[in-house]
Amino acid sequence: MKAFLVHQGILEPLNEEAMKEIDDKKKKVEIETKAHSAILLSLGDEVLREVSSEEKALGLWNKLAAIYMKRSLANKLYLKKKLYTLRMDESKDLRRHLDDYKQDYS
């Protein structure tokens, strides 16, 4: 998501210092709105329900980080269980299996 925001030239709202450097209020609002919209458009329905109350891109980003970047014991145990029960589907090739593994655990 960060790479997409960089590509679109709207990463500033995720950095308070960068937003302070923009003097033009109209440009500030435009960049904030674009970043907020870009993040919302990339979310699924379940996640969208959890973060829909956030008005600013930075608040949205922080709420998503709080939800998905937790390092709680429950998350660690869940990931360990997934790892220990991981089995390769024989109908898939090894590269596809590794891609699926990396996607699930990153």
What do you see in this structure?
The chain starts with a helix and ends with a helix. With about 110 residues, it is mostly helical. It has helices spanning about 1-10, 15-20, 25-40, 45-50, 55-70, 75-85, 95-105. α3 runs parallel beside α5 (about 55-70). It is elongated, with a radius of gyration of 18 Å. It has one domain. The protein contains 7 helices and no strands. The mean pLDDT is about 85.
In short:
The chain is mainly α and 106 residues long. The protein has seven helices and no strands.
Please specify the SSE layout and strand pairing.
Layout: H1 2-8, H2 16-21, H3 25-41, H4 45-51, H5 57-68, H6 73-84, H7 94-105
Helix pairs in contact: 3-5
Ends: how far apart? Answer: 14 Å
Secondary structure category: mainly alpha
Backbone CA Rg: 18 Å
Helix content: 55-70%
Tally of individual helices:
7
Q: How many structural domains can be distinguished in the coordinates? A: 1
Summarize the helix and strand pattern as letters: HHHHHHH
Q: How would a crystallographer describe the biggest sheet?
A: none
Protein name: Retrovirus-related Pol polyprotein from transposon TNT 1-94
Pfam families: Retrotran_gag_2 (PF14223)
Organism: Cannabis sativa (Hemp)
Features:
single chain; 106 residues; mainly alpha; 0% strand; elongated; Retrovirus-related Pol polyprotein from transposon TNT 1-94
